Structure formats: C-alpha cells, structure tokens
Amino acid sequence: MQRDIIIVGGGIIGAAVAYALGLRGMGERVCIIERAQPAAAATSRAAALVTLVRDKPNLIALVKESYSAIARLEKTQHEDVGRHQSGALYVAPQSHHASMQALAQICAEHGISHRELDKAQALQHAPWLKPEAFDVAFFFEQEIYCDPYQLASAYLRGATRMGAKLLHGEVASIHQGEAPAATTQAAKAGEAEDGATTKPATKPRAAQGVTLADGTYLPASQIVVAAGAWSSLLAEPLGIALPMAPVRSQYLITQTAPHFARDGAIVLMPEIQAYARPEVGALIFGIREQHAVAANPRTLPADLSRLVFDADNPDGFNDLVENADKLNRYFAHFEQTGIAHHMSGPSCYTSDGALVLGEAEHISGLYFATGYNGGGIAFAAGMGRVIAELIEGVKPYTDIAAHRPERLGYFDAFAPEFLQHCATSRSNKTSG
After folding, report:
1. Which among 2, 207, 220, 262 would be 20 to 30 A from 272, CA to CA?
2. Which residues contact 281 (CB under 8 A, 6 or more apart)?
3. How distant, in Å, are the alpha carbons of 122, 167, 320, 376 from that of 128?
4. What tens digit of pLDDT does each residue of 40-69 get?
C-alpha cells in the first residue's frame, strides 16, 4: 500500500497523530519522518504535566483524550509511560479564592472532581510548602504526570505495530499542486447547513508530497506538520504564517531532600505563576518569567543542547534570582536547597493562547498540529485524534475553530515584534 500520509516530526505530537491514524485503520498508509532520534528534542525537555484542570473547555477535551490513550497503552499494550497519579494541589492567598472557585466550577462541569482542603491536609500532599504562604487549597485528585520520552515512545511503538513506518530524514520542502476536481466536490458536499465545514468549500490547491534534504521526493496526498518549533519554516514558503513562536520554557531540578516526598502532589501556585512536581526524591519546579524570551525559528539549531535563547542569561539562573523572593515565600528550605539540574527548550506559544490545529485554508490535505502553549504532552492524543478525524473526513470530536492555523491571516511570523508577542503570552499565562 502506498504511504500517502506523511507526518513531519517524530516528537510526541507526531507520534500521537500516527497512533490515532492507526486506531482508525490507516496505519499502513502512514510514514513518519524524523531527522534525529524520535522524541529526543523538545519532547524530552518537558516537565510532562498531563493536567485536566484548564479554564478553556475545548482544551479539557483534548487532555481527556490523552488520559484515554494512556489508559489504552497501559492496559492493552502493557506500556509503561512513567505515569504517576499524584493529584494536583492549587495553593494561593485568600485574594485568589474566587478565581480558584471559578476554575474548579468549570472543571466540575466537565467531570473533574476536586476537594477544598485546610492547611494541614494540603501539607500532607506537599510537606515542603510553607504553611504561611497560602490560605486556600484545592486538590484535584485525577491529575497525573508522565515520563515524556516513555509516553512518546509508547505512542510510536503503538503506531508502528499498526503499520506506520518511521523514516530517518529531514523534510526540506512541502509541495502543492492543483487540487483534483473530486477534492473540491467532496469539500462542497461536506458543507454543513450553517455554512461551517471541516474543510473550506473551495480548495484550489492540494498537498502533493515532500522533498527531503538529500533530494528524495516522496509523494503524499495528506501531510501533517508536527515539527514543533520548526513548523513555521515549512509553512512560510507556502504562504502560510503560523501564529506561534518558539519561546524558552525552563525548569530546574533540586537536589534530593527528605521533605520532597516521592509520592507528593503536583503543586501549582497561581499567585507567583509557578509549579512543582516530585522527581525521584527531588523537585522539578518552574516559574513563568516576567520577561519571557522567544527565538527566531530560522536560528534554531537541530541539536537543542546548542540552543541559547539569551546570551546574557544562557543558563536561566538570572530568572531564578529575579523570582527568588517569590519562591522563598512558598518553599520551605528554599535557600538551603541546592539546584542539581537546569533544563530549557523551545515550547511553541501562540500570540492568542489558542493552539495551531487543523487544515490549511487553501491547501487541501495539509494539516498543522503545533502551537501547544506548553501543553504538548497533555494535548498530544487529543490533537492526534483531531487530525486523524480530519484525514478520515469526519467532523472532529471537539470544536477546533479557535485553533485554525491561519486565523491571523498572512503576516511576518518571524518579525521581532511578533516573536515578543508570543513570549509575552507565556509570561501572562495563568492556567494549565
């Protein structure tokens, strides 16, 4: 069978798309193209919180699909994805009580249970917290975190068992051509009574294939760009401006300490825009910088270990110092706890907080799955299902109108002002 579905990128999003296609009987049509080791780039640099608690219901639907996929991988394929159902503890001063109640209400409407705890109960889940730092605490017991590399590898193994092929190579360009008449007629036939379609009514162009860096041409009628921070480089020559940029996402791992319980909860501190989770007797923690840094996709190295977002602050410790007072208010023994590791990488943030998910407006068969705003591990299976359903020709299971890849029209997606706009979006993020 001809492999007429090409997925560009073998990170967790590309692997999840391939897995979703396999579940729908299309695995033998799929070729995943990855230029390096699968899931070794941004995926492996993620904190891997798979959190249902969101203030946008359409994002909750995506994470629920990831929960279902993880359960399927564990139960039917006996995969170990490093899942820890630790629950998530939200702690904040009294001034945040109303906003936390509102968030809990949204979640309750979507089947996400919670309990409001007193301080003693909260400290049982996170004994490293300073009790004087917070007045209210909400606990969401369903929340989990995973090992990002293990989870991505499980999606990939599942996809290959269902017939998908993994090809080592680098996609240099995507080709388009005149759309067959049948494609246009099918798009018109799929138009709903209210004028909404999963595909625009007129599609004069169609995906044709890709050319690899070594000159090899691979034909394909369906192409999924899941190349993360590098996606804009493939979109721009086609006249498509993706509303996203690679923004530095970083976290630190402390030295091990007895007050960091291995079975402790994920902790979110909305007041200071910080989070923490256990990591083998230590603690991973991150805080959203007041002045986040974006990179131009054209300057990204293939090897992320060589990526420096800010030459004046290459290890990110300036941000830790800048926020030390905030962290010290919440973390007991913060000043005495050593930092063992620092990790950073490009996370794709959009200028408006929505994802980049769906089909191109004027090129049928070309899809984008990126712009995940720091939630790629959590959204992966949901994004994969959406793309698989679009390729299958059915209406996606959740509303993706807000995530249209070309919702901002055409603009210079590499302009410094736009890149900074995306960085600011990360700085201002308060939920999920």
Report:
1. 262
2. 256, 257, 260, 262
3. 10, 46, 18, 28
4. 888 988 999 999 999 889 999 999 999 999
Q: How many CB atoms lie within 10 A of CB 397?
A: 13
For the chain, helix (H) and strand (E) counts, in that order, are: 11, 20
Does the pLDDT value for residue 197 go beyond 50? Answer: no
Contact 64, 70 (CB under 8 A): no
Q: Tokens 């996809």 appear where?
A: 159
Q: Say if residue 188's pLDDT is above 70.
A: no
- Which alpha helices (DSSP H) does 225-336 contain, by range? 231-235, 317-322, 324-330
Predicted TM-score (pTM) of this structure: 0.92
The answer to whether residue 388 scores a pLDDT higher than 70 is yes
- Nearest CA to 24 out of 295, 275, 320, 397 is that of 397
Amino acid at 263: D
Measured in Å, how far apart are the chain's first and last C-alpha atoms? Answer: 41
- Residue 394: closest CA among 168, 199, 259: 199
- On whether the CB atoms of residues 152 and 77 are closer than 8 A, the answer is no
What is the distance between the alpha carbons of residues 302 and 188, in angstroms, rounded to a whole number? 41
